[in-house]
User: Fold this.
Amino acid sequence: MIDFLKGALVIAGALFMLLASLGLLRLPDLLTRMHATTKAATLGVILIMLAAAMHFAEPSIIARAFAIIVFILMTAPVAAHVIGRAGYFVGSKLWSGTVKDELRPNYDPLTHELKSGMETQENAKRQPRETDPD
Amino acid sequence: MDTVILISQVIMSLALILSFVRVVRGPSLPDRVVALELFSTTVVGLVGVYAIKTNVPIFLDAAIVIALMGFLAAIGFARFLERGGPRDD
Assistant:
């Protein structure tokens, strides 16, 4: 029974990784590619580590496997966010079918200034502060 | 169990090859960084499967280190890209 479960988990994890790389290869632009790889590959690693925990079935090894799972779950979104942000900043092109890009009208790529979209002429003025260097 | 392990290793090698195609084809540097991150994640999975196959649990420590390295590489590349400013590759 546990052998069957292990085999199913390993195969499912490997298939999810294949799915992630297929998405990476087939999707049209940076952000859609990232959406394919981050989630599917994370799920693949989680399934394989669950299989490893079931295979060894010792408390220290199970703790190690769960440490890998928690680590991947915490780092994958951070890495995806940072790469997506950098990709947008360096001006990677979006897919031609993109419906909405909320940053485009409000963000200036040269000065890194971000507007809230609710500014008037008056409150957009720069107020000097005491801590400013001269 | 050995056949299942072999099949999963073949599938993951195929995934490595496909993501390597994306590393070669580009078209821009952020795409390559994403592909390399998927590469390191797939290698973590391969190491886990190898630990099951050989019955040696120490390999899971190597998996932890590889995952850490992939994360740090992604962060470093992103910092490098942001410092560089707009680019048109």
